Amino acid sequence: MPERRVVIASNVGLHARPAKLFAKLAADQPAKVTIAKEGQEPVDARSLLMILTLDAKGGDEVVLSAEGEGAEASLDALATELQTDRDV
Question: In terms of pTM, does the model score above 0.85?
């Protein structure tokens, strides 16, 4: 299963609006993607509620994992989103 380690660029982390945008992008991907912080169980990247339980802050490293058709492209798209500080 391919994976990417990504540092969250947004100063506010994955809270509220950034998490919603990330979850929507994950839902639009052909592959099933999970996201996890070190020492925590992976959660479904399509679930806003599960993303919020990670308490991922700006500067935290997360691990994205994907399985299925388009896994690499899905990881690329989601990694790019996390590495972009949209200042929202």
Answer: yes
DSSP state of 29: S
Which residues are known catalytic residues? 15
Tally of domains in the chain: 1
End-to-end C-alpha distance for the chain, whole angstroms: 31
> Distance between CA 2 and CA 35 in Å, rounded?
12
In this predicted model, what pLDDT tens digit does every residue of 8-51 receive, in sequence order? 999 899 998 999 999 999 999 999 999 999 999 999 999 999 99
Residue 62 sits in a domain whose CATH number is 3.30.1340.10
Name the residue range of residue 69's domain: 3-82
